[in-house]
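Is this the right way to post structure tokens for a design question? Let me know if I should format differently. Anyway, here goes:
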């Protein structure tokens, strides 16, 4: 029964902290092929709208203590009642009651009554504007307030809305391949385009290294870095390697790219892609970027630091479930230490690019401004926020240039 599978999948993410994308990658094959699209829609839709759906039913629970699996069941059932037009309400409620009977028979009547009430009323009384945005888009109120303070009310609302988008998948055409089957793709001037196939990983074009998944905004960061063939490039936080591979292809497998990451299992992901793409100019190594002593000097250094990921909420909706300001407090000093170390390996006249996939000026503009204040050899060439939308995650990128006459 597909809804039982969805319930187990949601419990794994909500209660056990599994990553939504990794869970689906591993377990979606357990679902009948004909039900996979529906299972994915309910799984991601519930995660993206979790707070909203939970608030919708819990306002009628009269303070009753509700078993944790029944809570998830109610939340996913409310998602279906409110967002899935093709599934009739009676079917959603009767499936939920059947599941409740299996999990906790004494809760079946409660589940039935609550879902009927939600289906009739379909409304929430909001306390104020922040509560309305936070609840409607399932974002923590502190993050909504922070976005309003940093970016203004209109952009904060746009960021929150974008967190509910279902994003299309884009791919990067390998500019080095000139096989007949890619002639059509080469007619497209831009190497990045929307993927229209079913499963990218099963696509021969992917397996043969002709195309690779790449977010539009992530590719924009590679354009800002602007690597040239024959150059020496350092990518200090590189895994899984999507930008590294775009850099190496742009360089037409010439020059040299050193790709580092802290975690061995993530370095293995970079190595897998080096093999799939048959690249010779990339070397992947496990190294902590807060200590880069012993490395030489590079023409361009990319610092794509670990961050809070607030620009990726629609693709990784589980981040919404665990939003905690303490996360940024831990990450900000690590980002500063990585930037400091990376800067020491930029040649005089070279380029340093700092990027994140988050929407938080403390990790972005302020981090770069603080760095520039204490590093007079660097100047800001450009910085921009790439706003999240149906076609891209949100990113921040800053390009810094090192003075050519910096004393070594
Ligand atoms: C934003 S992700 C990088 C994404 C990658 N550049 C890409 O485009 O595919 C940040 C990466 O930093 C790595 N990381 C975290 N702390 C690190 C450290 N101290 N040194 C090096 N890498 C680190 C994480 O393992 C993660 O893979």
């Amino acid at each position: 029964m597909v809804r039982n599978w969805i319930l187990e999948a949601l419990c794994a993410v909500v209660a056990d902290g599994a990553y939504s994308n990794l869970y689906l990658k591993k377990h979606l094959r357990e679902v009948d092929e004909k039900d996979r699209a529906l299972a994915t829609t309910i799984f991601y839709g519930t995660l993206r709208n979790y707070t909203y759906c939970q608030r919708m039913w819990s306002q009628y629970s009269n303070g009753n203590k509700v078993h944790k699996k029944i809570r998830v069941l109610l939340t996913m059932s409310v998602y279906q009642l409110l967002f899935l037009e093709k599934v009739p309400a009676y079917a959603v409620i009767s499936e939920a009651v059947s599941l409740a009977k299996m999990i906790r028979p004494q809760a079946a009547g409660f589940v039935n009554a609550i879902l009927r009430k939600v289906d009739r009323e379909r409304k929430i009384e909001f306390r104020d504007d922040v509560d309305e945005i936070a609840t409607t888009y399932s974002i923590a109120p502190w993050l909504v307030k922070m976005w309003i303070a940093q970016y203004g009310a209109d952009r904060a609302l746009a960021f929150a809305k974008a967190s509910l988008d279902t994003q299309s998948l884009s791919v990067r055409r390998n500019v080095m391949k000139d096989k007949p089957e890619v002639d059509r793709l080469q007619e497209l001037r831009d190497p990045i385009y929307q993927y229209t196939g079913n499963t990218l990983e099963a696509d021969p074009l992917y397996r043969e290294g002709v195309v690779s998944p790449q977010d539009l905004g992530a590719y924009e960061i590679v354009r800002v870095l602007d690597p040239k063939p024959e150059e020496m490039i350092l990518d200090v936080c590189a895994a899984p390697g999507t930008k590294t591979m775009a850099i190496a292809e742009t360089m037409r497998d010439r020059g040299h790219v050193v790709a580092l990451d802290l975690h061995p299992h993530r370095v293995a992901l970079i190595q897998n892609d080096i093999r799939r793409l048959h690249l010779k100019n990339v070397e992947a190594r496990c190294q902590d970027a807060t200590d880069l002593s012993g490395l030489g000097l590079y023409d361009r250094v990319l610092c794509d630091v670990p961050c809070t990921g607030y620009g990726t909420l629609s693709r990784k909706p589980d981040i919404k479930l665990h939003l905690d300001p303490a996360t940024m407090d831990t990450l900000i000093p690590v980002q500063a230490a990585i930037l400091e170390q990376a800067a020491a390996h930029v040649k005089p006249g070279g380029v340093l690019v700092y990027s994140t996939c988050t929407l938080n000026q403390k990790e972005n503009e302020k981090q770069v401004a603080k760095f520039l204040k204490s590093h007079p050899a660097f100047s800001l060439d450009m910085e921009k926020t790439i706003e999240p939308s149906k076609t891209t995650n949100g990113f921040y990128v800053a390009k810094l240039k090192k003075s050519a006459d910096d004393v070594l």
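Format looks fine. Someone answered above. Worth noting: The chain has 18 helices and ten strands. Residues 234 and 301 are 5 Å apart (CA to CA).
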